[in-house]
Amino acid sequence: MSEQTKHEMKTIEELSEGNVGVKRTLTFGRGVGVLGGLIIGSGIFYTSSYVLDYSYGNPGIAILAWVLGGLICLGAAMCLAELASIMPANGGTYLYISRIYGKAGPLLAFTMGWSDALIGIPGNVAIALVGATYIGTLFGGFSAIQISCLAAGICIILTLFNMIGAKEGSMLSTVLLFIKVAAILCVILACFIFGENTGDPITFTNMAGSGSIISALSFSVVAVLWCFDGWNSICHMAGELKNPKKNISRVMAVTIAGITVIYLLFNFAIMRILPVSDIIASENVTFDVVEILFGKGAATVITVAIICSVIGSLNSCILVYPREIYAMSRDYRWFTPCGRLSKKRKQPVAASLYILAMMVFYCFAASFRSLVDIIVLYNWIYFMLAVLGVIVLRKKRPDLERPYKTFGYPVVPILVAFCALVMLIVNFVWDPSTALGFIIPLTGIPAYYAFQYYFRKRGYPKFEDEAEGEASAE
């Protein structure tokens, strides 16, 4: 390997040694808090109506969609867990694609990172906007500009808090995860203990329109996957997880399996109280169920729970995703300051401030929502590449130590990749405009070569911790 290539990015062997510069401060419990806190946002409180609508009001198909959605994410997570156990460093999907696919890997990974840096990661500001909207309901409603200002303020406060350290940020995510899970479990228990069985029976019968089982299931699973968004996020922090070669797979398995069970119980609970037609017509089915059980006053309590859920999800996003920008910068694929860590806390401060600036901008960008709609397409393209990367790496590098191996190999990676391909096709058929999601990654191709040219001219300057490491070795 040439000296220039060594300067450009660390090899798989170097990453497997675990010397990644950052502090390993996340325990297993904190890892669950970060991952679960990111996945469970506001979606579970209202997505059930969308899933039933897309399934033509078929309760059996809707429940099956929640099961399949959870299994797809669990299977994909276990594939990425194998890659993370080999390369226990920050960066996640970007890191794996860049190292697995040979000469094409760095370019493929950069187009994903480029897209994430421009819209995918700052696109999480949508969570802040939802939270600001719910806070507004407690005070009689806010105007659009008030919601934007409040959302920007939430982003600023959470970013500054997470810059203190991963330990503190993960603690907040864990506390808020307990609150949101407790709220969901309270709704579930209330439905079964205090509610009457006035819903429709769960059968495989369409109650709201006609259509094929295949289309109903496909569209419903796509809707379910919205509620599992962020299932791969803990991989971005593999470099800060204690004993990552064992804990990364455990964190992902326990969290995603547990959330799948909670989501299923929640849907069984609301279907017990409300007929299918009422669930489909509802703008927020959780409000409606709680109002039936306890009256309108209880809606305020649910609103507070949703706010905690949203802020917890946003906090995990702000904690996790600067690590991808950091990893790109360490590979000399992004601006050098974003690859530096703060001296005392070892946090990617510059990367966090970059994302904060983009999020604040998007809080006030009128066209933001239309941009968010197209990121689903390119996300699943790269997820599919990462999952198939398990098979590619086993063929190319059977000699690598694999502390964790994907269960059901190679069937599970193939099935997950197939499901990802179906999701891409379904999204395109559902909304052809999502094909615009190809444009942003394509613009990353000239940007990739521009960064290459820039850093070659500068001679690949070393980061501080690399320089310190060489000095100590001498």
Explain what this protein looks like in three dimensions.
The protein has 474 residues and is mainly α. 69% of the residues lie in helices and 0% in strands. The chain contains 22 helices and no strands. It has helices at 3-8, 12-16, 28-39, 47-54, 59-86, 93-100, 105-120, 125-137, 144-162, 166-193, 213-226, 244-273, 276-281, 285-294, 298-320, 322-330, 349-363, 368-372, 375-396, 411-430, 439-458, 464-473. Helix 5 (59-86) crosses helix 11. It is globular and about 70 Å long. Residues 1-7 and 469-474 have low confidence and may be disordered.
Notable features of this structure?
mainly alpha, about 475 residues, about 0% strand, Amino acid/polyamine transporter I, 22 helices
Q: What can be said about this structure in brief?
A:
With 474 residues, the protein is an all-alpha fold.
Describe the oligomeric state of these chains in a short phrase. single chain
Quick one: CATH class? Mainly Alpha
Poorly predicted residue ranges: 1-7, 469-474
Secondary-structure element sequence?
HHHHHHHHHHHHHHHHHHHHHH
Task: Summarize the amount of helix as a percent range.
Answer: 55-70%
Task: Give the name of the CATH architecture.
Answer: Up-down Bundle
Q: Give the full name of the CATH homologous superfamily.
A: Amino acid/polyamine transporter I
Q: What is the rounded Rg? A: 22 Å
